[in-house]
């Protein structure tokens, strides 16, 4: 259970936050939302694909961390053994929330039920004068940066949609411990044929917005599917 409340000095002046590479809270999430700014770094480890919201029709980029739904192969225990980490993994126990539906102003909230919240021994959120600590200021700025990155990523996905660049990925995977192949569906990738057939004007619009490196990183990341399948086989054999 979570207990998320707005951060304030009256309630939280005496608590601290510890940092941990235990991301086992994501153990059942095989698709992790990411932002465009981390495509290049994450592409060295994870396939980056897109998923479509059935209600809005909008696309979101995600890092595939499992072949089977409900199993994140990287977060089954408390150890994170990979050199790259999605930005969103480091948010907890802090988050941003709008002050009202009509306002663009946000406030910092904290999940008081998180194991990362401690009474002593961690990074203080407020100093003795009940002013924000440098640590809290840095964490708040990181949250604001990610919020901005999310907006920019949504805009890029809308651009891909307008140019009809995204197509469903059809992939059937045969695992060692499964008699039948597993179909990976519900994910989308950039259509290379469509990309190459863009008009000069549309292609230049991608170039001028700095989007081309992101597309190439995404396409290159699909080579990591073989790594993911091998990891799934090792996981299945260990059970």
From TrEMBL:
Pfam families per UniProt: SapC (PF07277)
Protein name as catalogued: SapC family protein
Originating species: Shewanella sediminis (strain HAW-EB3)
Lineage: Bacteria, Pseudomonadati, Pseudomonadota, Gammaproteobacteria, Alteromonadales
């Amino acid at each position: 259970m979570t207990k998320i409340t707005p951060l304030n000095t009256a309630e939280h002046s005496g608590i601290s936050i510890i940092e941990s590479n235990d991301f086992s809270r994501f153990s059942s999430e095989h698709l992790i939302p990411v932002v465009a700014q981390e495509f290049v770094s994450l592409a060295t480890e994870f396939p980056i694909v897109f998923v479509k919201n059935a209600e809005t029709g909008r696309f979101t980029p995600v890092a595939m961390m499992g072949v089977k739904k409900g199993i994140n192969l990287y977060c089954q225990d408390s150890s994170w053994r990979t050199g790259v980490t999605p930005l969103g993994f480091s948010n907890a126990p802090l988050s941003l929330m709008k002050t009202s539906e009509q306002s663009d102003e946000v406030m910092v909230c904290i999940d008081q039920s998180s194991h990362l919240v401690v009474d002593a021994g961690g990074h203080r959120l407020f100093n003795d004068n009940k002013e924000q600590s440098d640590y809290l200021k840095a964490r708040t700025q990181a949250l604001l940066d990610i919020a901005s990155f999310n907006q920019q990523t949504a805009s890029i996905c809308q651009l891909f949609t307008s140019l009809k660049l995204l197509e469903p990925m059809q992939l059937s995977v045969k695992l060692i411990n499964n008699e039948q192949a597993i179909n990976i569906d519900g994910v989308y990738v950039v259509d290379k044929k469509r990309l190459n057939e863009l008009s000069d004007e549309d292609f230049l619009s991608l170039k001028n917005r700095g989007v081309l490196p992101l597309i190439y990183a995404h396409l290159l990341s699909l080579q990591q599917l073989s790594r993911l399948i091998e990891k799934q086989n090792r996981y299945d054999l260990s059970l």
